[in-house]
């Protein structure tokens, strides 16, 4: 008995080893080995670490499963936050420190997953597979590693690009608080051309956003606005006690350069004194408290458009690409080209000209085109564009934009921007068509303040009156009534008139060469008409 028990034990253990094809494939048939290989790959794809538990190093598998389950739990938390408090989730990803932790975690998971895939390939033992199946399984491992680990690595790269852009564009500081339930931001498009001393904001717009609903309104201030007032307590009152009112030399877009070059000491410790002065002026003009600014350098604007792959618009009229102002008098050489009406995709160079061209038209037309380009860019920032071109967009944005908005609050502002898509965008321009053409030269500030209040706090729509009771006897007209017998014509639907087919770029160019400004002014009057394509 003493000699037989080891044999029994040995005999009873051996069949268990030989009949476990998942852990010991040597005893399995060729089809079973192939099925085992694909089964282990699927386990590693969907539940990393489970293949090691069933067929390999269980200790490694347990560590991998702990990481897997932790990631699943974090993903569930992220989904819950996205549903119940999206703002918190956005703040986590836009905060420079938490986003750095996310980047490190994603790279670590990518490396760990790659190790698990390679370990799974070792467990599969490709040498036991048929030659054709061996190549297929090895190729599948390579493809799955690229799809999983590569995607995680690319995601980390995108988050890092966004993080760098955020730290470059926005500032560290305390959160902004809404004023009267709203955030008011000054958005400027600055231009520092070769013929200018310093940068001037040619596009000036205030965006006011309801802090709860996200409902937004924009107020455009013409670049040639005069007699600007300032917010209460502004240091500019000490330099300009009557307001910025020295005539044509004090149009509002000169204020930025004036303060930057001559009075930077008015705003000690401020990164951009010119932008701070523009905030004080915009606030005084509109009767609002402006809390932050965003300045877009138009010289680099074309890089951002190119990074997006272009921008599509539906242009309503011809827009010239102005020739050089060789004498510095505003008399340009004939245009170097023309942007035609209709739906078209503009590259950065042409989009910049479309936004800045102002020959033969009022500034209002240019303001319309700038708003159209901005709306088209937002409309075309779809997930596929952002995902495939995010790094280029973020890099271009960091070179184009400057802001004093706090980086830690960016997620909250993104959340408000997403909410704002549920509402129409209200607009007001301190010039045509909302005011007379000379209003920007002789503004009525009391009127502006009342119009701004009405824009931001519209009166609730009145309920329609109840219909009056109808006398049945009066419903049918008398048979002899010739008016009642006349048929009622349905209203005719109107569509915008198509561009005159006789107007061509060659014709407009010849008018410019001839110096026929009157005809060009008439023909280009509609070039502010535009919509996102």
Automatic annotation (TrEMBL):
InterPro entries: LytR/CpsA/Psr_CW_biosynth (IPR050922), LytR_CpsA_psr (IPR004474). Residues 471-498 have a biased composition (Low complexity). Residues 200-381 form the Cell envelope-related transcriptional attenuator domain. Keywords: Membrane, Transmembrane, Transmembrane helix. The chain crosses the membrane at residues 37-55, 67-85, 97-118, 139-159. Residues 459-498 are annotated as: Disordered. Pfam families: LytR_cpsA_psr. Gene3D superfamilies: LCP protein (3.40.630.190). Residues 461-470 have a biased composition (Pro residues). Belongs to the LytR/CpsA/Psr (LCP) family. This is Transcriptional regulator. It comes from Arthrobacter psychrolactophilus.
